[in-house]
Amino acid sequence: MTDAQETAADSSLRTTGGAPPDDGGSSVTGAPNPEPIPLLEPRDGIPPVIVDDASLAEVIAAFAAGSGPVAVDAERASGYRYGQRAYLVQLRREGAGTALIDPVACPDLSGLGEALSGVEWVLHAATQDLPCLREIGMVPTRLFDTELAGRLAGFPRVGLGAMVESVLGFVLEKGHSAVDWSTRPLPEPWLRYAALDVELLVDLRDALEKELDRQGKLEWAHQEFAAIAAAPPAEPRKDPWRRTSGMHKVRRRRQLAVVRELWEMRDRIAQRRDVSPGKVLSDAAIVEAALSLPANAHALAALTGFGHRMGRRQLEQWQSAVDRAKALADSQLPQPGQPVAGPPPPRAWADKDPVAAARLSAARAGVSALAEQLNMPQENLITPDTVRRVCWEPPVPADAGAVAGALAGFGARAWQVELVTPVLVEALSAKAP
Question: Which of 4, 38, 319, 374 has the fewest beta carbons under 10 Å from its own?
Fold first, then answer.
C-alpha cells in the first residue's frame, strides 16, 4: 500500500454507507486490500442546476466564502455538437457544497471566476477542460491536476475512476461520460454522475500531494501545475483538414485539394447546424471521394458514405466541392505534407545524419532509463520533441550549461532541466556506428 493509499485509509473516507462522511466515521485502517466501495450518491444529494442570474449570484457568494481548494469539472458534448463548449460546470468547495451550473443558461461565469481568483482549482486532466472554461470566463491562477499528479507519482492508470478507486477505495460510476451533455433537461442519473465527479476530487488531491511529497516529487508537480496555469490559449491549428483520418492514402495534390474542399464545406455546415462534423460527413467518405475524383453526383452516390439516405441536393452540394478542387490551377493546389518546423522524422535520421541518429538513440535510451528509475512516463520527464530538437541541432559546445539553456528554451521546467541535462550531455557525445 502506498502512502497515498494509507492517507486515504486514515482519513476515514472509506465508509459502509456508500459516501464519505463530513465529520469522520468508521475507517478501515489496517484492513488488507479492502474491497472498493461503490459511490452511489453525493453526500449532500444532487443539487439543483443553476439556470438564472439570481441563483448564480448565490453560488458565487457561497463559493467565495468557502475554504480550501475548489474542485472543478466540465462536461462537453464531444461527438454530438460542433466545438468543445461546456454544457455543464461542476464545482465543490468546503463550506459551499456542490454546485451544478448550466453555462448555456448562464454563459458568463466570469464573476465566479473572479470570486475564485487566487484559490487553488483542482481538476482532473486540466488541459482538457481549461479551454472550454476559459470561453465562459473561468481561468484559474493556481491549479492542481490530479491526473498529472498520478502520472508523476507513477500510477499505472490515471483516469479519474481508476485513481479514485486505487487511492481512495471508491468506485465511481462512469456510464455517462460520453453522453450528449447538450440534452435539456439533463436526466437525474447524469446529474448524479456529474456531482460525483467532483465529490472526492479534493480528497484525491490531498492524498496525491502526500504521495508526491513522500517520493520527493511535490516541487516538480508544483512547477508543472504552474506551467499549465500560465500557458496561453492554444493557437488555431494550421491546415486542420490535413488531420482527416485516412489522409495517408491521399498522395496526389489534386486529391489533397478535394479533401480540403470537402473538409471546409463540412466544417461550415457543422458549425451552422451546431453538430459534430462527423455527423455531417465521415472522414472515410471524404477520403473516398478524393481518391475517386467522381465526375458527377451520380458517380459520387456510388461511393461509400454518400449513397445511403443522402438526397440529390446534398449529393450535388458535395459534388460542387469536388468540382471546385478539380478546377483549381496547379499553382493553387496544396503541397503534399505540411511544412515541418524543426527536425525531420526520426526514421529519416540514419540517412540524413548518422551522427545525429546516434545521438538520438543514446538520448532515448538514457531518458528511458531515468524515467524508469523515477517511476514516471518518459513524456512527463521530458517531451520527445524536445529531445529530438536538442539532438538534431545540439548547442556548441554541448556542455551542461548550454544543454540546460537549450532545454529551458524549449519550455522544459527547472526540475526537468536539472534531471535531464546530464543524460543529454552524455548522449550528445555519441558517435555514429
Answer: 38
Whether residue 149 contacts residue 212, with contact meaning beta carbons closer than 8 Å, is answered with yes
Give the HSE-up count for residue 146: Cα atoms under 13 Å, Cβ half-sphere: 33
Q: Give the DSSP H/E element, type plus range, for residue 382.
A: none
C-alpha dihedral over 117, 118, 120, 122, to 10 degrees?
Answer: 20
- Record the pTM: 0.88
Query: 335, 254 in Cβ contact below 8 A?
Result: no
Lookup: cell for 47: 443539487
Nearest by Cα to 30 from 60, 5, 67:
5
- Rounded Cα distance, 230 and 304, in Å: 46
Q: Give pLDDT tens digits for 172-196.
A: 977 777 899 999 999 999 999 999 9
Cβ pair 206, 7 in contact under 8 A: yes
| Antiparallel, parallel or unpaired: β 37-38 and 170-171 | parallel
The grid cell for 241 is 483538414
- Assigned C-alpha cell, 66: 468557502
For residue 156, say if its preceding peptide bond is cis, omega within 30 degrees of 0. Answer: no
Place of cell 538534431: 392
Backbone angles phi, psi at 88, to 5 degrees: -160, 135
